[in-house]
Design brief:
elongated, four-stranded mixed beta sheet, about 35% helix, 3 domains, about 30% strand, Rossmann fold, single chain
């Protein structure tokens, strides 16, 4: 490639994951495979090619970057079910009454553009349902029982923080709709904050190795620009250059491996 742009993501274990790339291939492949076109002047010319790689690995990055020991944590904008409503009841009559109320709430949520599910299955307990939807990463869970029906309340739990509270049914639709944006932003901010905290500038080989072994994450270090040095660093530490950040500033320094002059820092990391 003449130029490559890459999205480098950092996972919770401190390893990097190349999440997407776009390559400007120039005419290199066209010349290798003799791919030509006729230009405006009627003359044959080798095509200019690009290559784009943004695919299912983004799903892997999504799962690994946000999830926890309870299962998936999905951003609301991507979640197939944004809110699940679970009835808590004893007996068939109580179930019918509570499910009817949940159906009405669900209809209002759908009218606001949300993807909603009412889980009225009667062959599994509510606790099983709670665990199942935590595992699936549904952003918001609403649970309604007989006491809530009497008091005009409902239990609300958000998947990202696992916080649970009893809230009034009045104003619930606005609250859940706003919560989707709040959760979306919160998940993003948390991941970005973690990434930023895991970028460590180093100036010596000893610091470089110690940071990789003890902290992980991205290591911002000077590199002399040669393939030979990059290969040697990889063989010694299993770390590779992930990218040169778009906002990297020119900074004179010495390569952490060879000691030769370097004009900017690059990001190293161990990766999947």
């Amino acid at each position: 490639a003449e130029d490559t742009l890459t999205i480098e993501a950092l996972m919770q274990d401190g390893k990097a994951l190349q999440s997407g790339t776009s390559h400007f291939l120039g005419q290199n492949f066209a010349k290798a495979f003799d791919v030509q076109f006729t230009n405006k002047e009627g003359k044959l010319e080798y095509v200019w090619a690009t290559s784009w790689g943004v695919s299912t690995r983004l799903m892997g990055a999504l799962i690994m970057a946000h999830s926890d020991n309870n299962g998936l944590v999905l951003p609301p904008a991507l979640a197939p079910i944004q809110a699940v409503l679970v009835p808590i009841y004893k007996g068939e009559e109580q179930m019918k009454t509570i499910v009817a109320k949940l159906d009405a709430i669900a209809a209002e949520l759908r009218a606001r553009g949300l993807s909603v599910k009412v889980d009225a299955r009667d062959n599994v307990r509510s606790g099983f349902k709670f665990a199942e939807y935590e595992l699936k990463g549904v952003p918001v869970r609403l649970a309604l029982g007989p006491r809530d029906l009497e008091n005009g309340t409902i239990e609300l739990m958000r998947r990202d923080t696992l916080e649970k509270e009893v809230v009034p049914q009045e104003g619930l639709i606005d609250r859940v709709a706003a919560l989707m944006d709040e959760i979306q932003q919160g998940i993003f901010d948390r991941a970005r904050s973690f990434r930023d905290s895991m970028i460590t500038p180093v100036d010596t080989w000893e610091e470089f190795v110690r940071t990789l072994d003890t902290k992980g994450g991205f290591v911002a270090a000077h590199w002399d620009g040669t393939v030979e040095t990059e290969v040697a660093i990889k063989e010694a530490t299993k770390a590779t250059i992930r990218c040169i950040p778009l906002d990297a500033v020119d900074e004179e320094g010495a390569c952490i491996y060879s000691g030769k002059p370097s004009h900017r820092r690059v990001l190293f990391a161990r990766s999947y």
